[in-house]
Design a protein that fits this description.
This is Tryptophan-rich sensory protein. The chain has one domain: Ferritin (Up-down Bundle). The protein is 79% helix and 0% strand. The chain contains six helices and no strands. Helix 5 packs antiparallel against helix 6. 32% of the residues are buried.
């Protein structure tokens, strides 16, 4: 694993966490959010600051390993393609927080979560295809994003007639 790649990947993932967190931290305690009806299976608020750092760390490490392996084996175009897919994924990731918490658009947030899940599945597919079992840990990320898509969609459904 190259320090340069790890630094770039960790910086991009860290920036995503900061940008998404800026929308979430202020608005998670807002009157708008408090009024929303939420499904019974929604995790308690203390779960999210535990899960997301673990997923972000996993994403940065697996992505670094994948990008470096592709570059080391002469697959420069595949490394650039993975990096671009990662960039899109991170935009969708941070974008969900802004759409949901800042713009108060649960329907659009559900669509964004669906796109994020598809993007996360694509990253995992690429990592596993490139690194085999070393890419496997990334599967936790699309699994969580799929859960977030179901949760976002259910919140939208519960509140769409309000």
């Amino acid at each position: 694993m190259r320090i340069k790649t790890l630094g770039a990947t960790a910086a991009a993932v860290g920036a995503t966490a900061i940008v998404g967190g800026a929308a979430t931290s202020r608005d998670v305690n807002s009157p708008w959010y408090a009024r929303l009806r939420k499904p019974s299976y929604q995790p308690p608020p203390k779960v999210f600051p535990i899960v997301w750092p673990l997923l972000y760390t996993d994403l940065a490490l697996v992505s670094t390993d994948t990008i470096d392996h592709l570059a080391d084996t002469g697959e420069e175009q595949a490394a650039r393609s993975y990096s671009a897919a990662l960039g899109l994924n991170l935009v969708l990731n941070a974008g969900w927080s802004w759409v949901f918490f800042n713009r108060h658009r649960p329907g659009l947030a559900a669509l964004t979560a669906g796109a994020l899940t598809a993007s996360s599945l694509d990253l995992t597919r690429r990592a596993v295809q490139t690194r085999g079992v070393r890419g496997g840990p990334l599967a936790a990320y699309p699994a969580w994003c799929a859960f977030a898509t179901v949760l976002s969609t259910h919140i939208w459904w519960l509140n769409c007639r309000r």
